[in-house]
Amino acid sequence: MTTAPVRPGGPVHEGHPRRWAVLAVMVLSLMSIILDNTVLNVTLRTLTDPRHGLGASHSQVEWVLSAYTLAFAATLFTWGVLGDRMGRRRVLLLGLGLFGLSSLAGAYAGSPEQLVAARACMGVSGAAVLPSTLATIAAVFPLQERPKALGIWAASVGFALGIGPVTGGLLLARFWWGSVFLVNVPIVAVCLVAVVLLVPETRGAAGKRVDAAGLLLSIAGLVLLVHAVIEAGRTGGLARPTVWGTGLAGLGLLGVFLWHERRTAEPSLELGFFRLKAFSTAVAAVGFVSFAMMGFLFFSAFYLQSVRGYTPLQAGSCTVALAVANVVCGPLSTVLVRSIGPRNVCAAGMLAVAASLSGVVLVTQHAPLWLILVLFAALGAGVACVMPTAAVSIMNAIPREKAGVASAMNNTVRQLGGALGVAVLGSVLGAAYRSGIEDELAVLPPSARHEAGESLDATLLAAGRLGVSGLAGPARQAFVDAMHLAAGAAAVVALAGALAVLRWLPSTTPQQPPAAGPVPGRARTDRTKAQGS
């Protein structure tokens, strides 16, 4: 079925007649991508098992996670630009098809190296899907219905984050580890058929060339920068040249990218957009909340399984509270925006995230389960207030023809914020744990102390292997103390985000400028040139 491309200024302002069916397809497509990552989180221990998994080393398991993050974050912006130029439906179909094939390859990977390669392909293809879903929603919904649609879109992210670990635990209890990837294949197949039958083609202004040099610079710069962030998390600091050298090189290339964008006639990224507070502050809010949320999910997974001894299914079930809160509060946040404004809703969400992280100091080795569920629910409610509100602000601040770029910026910052959250808070957690357990390791032989102090799991493994039963309790307490410190650092970041929102985010939702209107910042430059001539 072929559909004429929908462009700004056309009938799309009244809304596409199938827009709610299109939203359902976009949500299902998005959930297939998010679900893939959250399902994997409870599979990592199984991958290290030589008999039931792949016998992967700790470093290889880290790259199973990092390969996806690296490829995803580095190509998000590029796919957003290509969707605006080539058509978002076309890019979405390409991304879904490649993602399904990559998931199939991951399910039947015969070695850790093959799985890392499959995960990198999933990252590239997933990056094509995510901005296309958000940009398509912005294109087919009129302004008055867009906040509700984006609220549902954002709630689906939280829902997928919550049910992913539960799904992974159920699959691992009944099938082999590859089933966590194979489950995506039929979902992707349904999405492909639905996109062909229901989703119209949408794109930005016709006739614009692809800024190939800018896109290549952005990919290279983001690859190096994200790689440096990942390495900082893995090595626990910035001292190694592979961390600071790679990071500086990435920042340098991104600087060249910005220089290029200011001078090219048809830039991929209009830098004038960042002068709009509704755009730049909302993008920053997404980064702050992603940093805090992903850090929380990172250390809570270890707490639930290594400290409390939960199975993957039991640990995953705790995140249902986050999913329920997100699903309930996501659509409600769009109603609140109409009554008290985006600034107050977004700031309240950031404060809820900060409160949930501050509440982690009350968590002990044997804390009641209801306390843990309340903290997950508070985090989910906070994120549900921030994400859709920020998304509406970002998408409404710039012309509809740039929806793919806006979506890509939103998701690139989200991915970078999450990667930084895991890297920075993981480093804080690791350093605090090593400091707290150092004296207790004196009961081990000197040759075993360094390796045993690297993580809680390493300590428990060494204690079990060497028959030192008295080490497990102090090790778990040292982890809980370190978790309190990491959660406090994340709470400070969330609080900083709330203050930034209160200071700079507009109190009313911006009205989308016309497609042919001047880009902020560029218009003044054009007038200056005209006056000078």
Structure write-up:
With 533 residues, the chain is mainly alpha-helical. It is 75% helix and 0% strand. It has 20 helices and no strands. The chain has helices at residues 19-41, 44-47, 58-86, 88-107, 112-140, 146-174, 179-182, 184-198, 212-235, 241-263, 277-307, 312-318, 320-340, 342-358, 369-397, 403-437, 446-452, 456-466, 472-504, 522-532. Helix 3 (58-86) runs parallel beside helix 5 (112-140).
In short:
With 533 residues, the protein is mainly alpha-helical. The protein is built from 20 helices and no strands.
Q: Compute the number of helices.
A: 20
**Which percent bin holds the helix content?**
over 70%
Secondary-structure element order, as H and E?
HHHHHHHHHHHHHHHHHHHH
Mean pLDDT: 80
Keywords:
globular, 20 helices, 533 residues, disordered C terminus, single chain, mainly alpha
Topology diagram in text:
Blueprint: H1 19-41, H2 44-47, H3 58-86, H4 88-107, H5 112-140, H6 146-174, H7 179-182, H8 184-198, H9 212-235, H10 241-263, H11 277-307, H12 312-318, H13 320-340, H14 342-358, H15 369-397, H16 403-437, H17 446-452, H18 456-466, H19 472-504, H20 522-532
Helix pairs in contact: 1-5, 1-6, 1-8, 3-4, 3-5, 3-9, 3-16, 4-5, 4-8, 5-16, 6-12, 6-13, 6-15, 9-10, 9-16, 11-14, 11-15, 11-16, 11-19, 13-14, 13-15, 14-15, 14-19, 16-19, 18-19
